[in-house]
Amino acid sequence: xxxxxxxxxxxxxxxxxxxxxxxxxxxxxxxxxxxxxxxxxxxxxxxxxxxxxxxxxxxxxxxxxxxxxxxxxxxxxxxxxxxxxxxxxxxxxxxxxxxxxxxxxxxxxxxxxxxxxxxxxxxxxxxxxxxxxxxxxxxxxxxxxxxxxxxxxxxxxxxxxxxxxxxxxxxxxxxxxxxxxxxxxxxxxxxxxxxxxxxxxxxxxxxxxxxxxxxxxxxxxxxxxxxxxxxxxxxxxxxxxxxxxxxxxxxxxxxxxxxxxxxxxxxxxx
Length: 270
Hints:
globular; TIM Barrel; 270 residues
């Protein structure tokens, strides 16, 4: 039976999702999809965001349906550790095809306050021979960081090792400016809410331009999320945004499809 991706016809309760996720973590049967990230000036694929999925009776379930459950159940750190292991192993394989490939790994605010995540990430990088600079760790603002001091310590440790850091969904999450003040990021990912209609909304253009200016002043690069059309990508380019992702560039897909659609094609173009 093939897998399909999308919402289930029936919704699970929170307890059912918790139990299903617990079984998936124990059995190591979660899935990792990749969404391409391009260098805007050259339009070349330079990396990918690692996105966890759950195979629920043949339906590939996106994280929006179970990640919050994991956070509330205290399982977010376990889920993040699984993603780190799988993403680093995948990065090692993909860098054999594209040596400059970077893997962007989403982690929850809960994990960022724990030194264990940094230890696990660096150990996995060493085990697979992946340079720390090939990984960008994204802080996802689905919940506030509980211990900013601990998060700062982890960020400093990872950056000293060469791992780059990104603030995800900037502009809509918890205390975005507070994070920029206390944590050193290499990238700011502009939330898709402000990007999706850039080609038609002057207000969104003004907001995005102000974010780009702020990031530039702080020495950070910007990434546009939810780029859905060539028109939006043109505006992203005009505004000086360095990197971009979205359905207009490429949808999340399996590792094999990612190689065929993006890495192989990108290599042939050079």
